[in-house]
Amino acid sequence: MFCPLGQICRHPPSFYTRVYQNNPKKIPDTNREFSYSKLWYNSPMRKSSLLYTAFGIIVVVGVLHHIAVAFYLYWTIWWFDIMMHFLAGFAGGLVMMWFFSPTSIFRAVGFILVSVLIIGVVWETWEYLADLVQPINYWQDTIYDLVSDMVGAALSCLYAYISGAIPKFSLKSSGV
User: Per-domain residue ranges for the chain?
Assistant: First the structure.
């Protein structure tokens, strides 16, 4: 590979190349065949990609919230609040998954849904106590908000499963 300056560029080998390919004695679990895909499941980069995605969504939610407050979008567009709760549930699910890193899909879905539901209930309670809600259709709005949070959390589990942040389905890892 040539640099624009005409010099040959050589990138240093990765940690796994230096340690495992050059020293076969250090290959983890020598009874099995070595593969990079097993290392990728426990890779810090794979786990941090969830956090980067969640951070990006949180920034979008923050910007949209400030725009919505400035232009009264929560009160003029009926679906705007639902969309914001969906995005917040999705980002919250990714943050919870990154922070606690569940070991199976069943534990991930259960833990993420329960934790996002608790956060949603606390948020709705705060909205009520801060007198930010309209008394007309309050319960209907609360149910829509909590369902939107849960749908966002469920899709964050699906996203993490598809991206490989949660190990694929296995009866041994699920505790069944």
Answer: 44-174
